[in-house]
Amino acid sequence: MTTAAEAAQGEPEFLFPDVYAFVSDYLAQVLRRRLNGSVATWCPRWWEHPEAGARLSALWLAFEHLRHDTALGMSTWWLHHADPHLRVLMDPDVGPFAACSPKDGHTAYPFDPLPVDPRPS
Fold first, then answer.
1. Nearest residue to 26 (alpha-carbon basis) of 35, 17, 34
2. What is the 3-state secondary structure (H, E, C) of 48-117?
3. Side-chain-side CA neighbours of residue 54 (13 Å)
4. 56-115, pLDDT tens digit by residue?
5. Which among 10, 19, 51, 110 has most CB atoms closer than 10 A?
């Protein structure tokens, strides 16, 4: 996962030093949802899910970039970044956390990676 130092070379300082701080100190504090497993779900060990790590890292970096746009930055972030990613992440049927539970925790191996045939030589 990307760190602030890697992503911010020559750019304004980041508000959150890494994706972990962004999720725990911002996203988890701002989002208030009914996590009942039928409408939405979450995994408290989200970093154990490669797709979640990639999506949340993308959300963090987009947030850090767009927060400097005082006119439309945060609206753009919510509508075009957070909402679509969170819909996928929190989908209780097909999202990466579908086998996990906010109460019962992480399932170690919920799903296999996508099947891929070897590349032809």
1. 17
2. HCHHHHHHHHHHHHHHHHHCCCCCCHHHHHHHHHHHHHHHHHCCCCCCCCCCCECCCECCCCCCCCCCCC
3. 5
4. 999 999 999 999 999 999 999 999 999 999 999 999 999 999 999 888 899 876 688 889
5. 19
Q: How far apart are CA 2 and CA 62, in angstroms?
A: 12
109 to 89, 96, 97, 106, 118: CA distances (angstroms): 16, 11, 11, 9, 23
CB atoms near residue 41 (< 10 Å): 22
What residues form DSSP beta bridges with 35? none
pTM assigned to the model: 0.84
Q: Can you tell me whether residue 3 is helix, strand or coil?
A: strand
Distance CA 69, CA 101 (A): 36
Q: What are phi and psi of 25, to 5 degrees?
A: -90, -20
Three-state DSSP at 13 gives coil
Distance between CA 117 and CA 53 in Å, rounded?
25
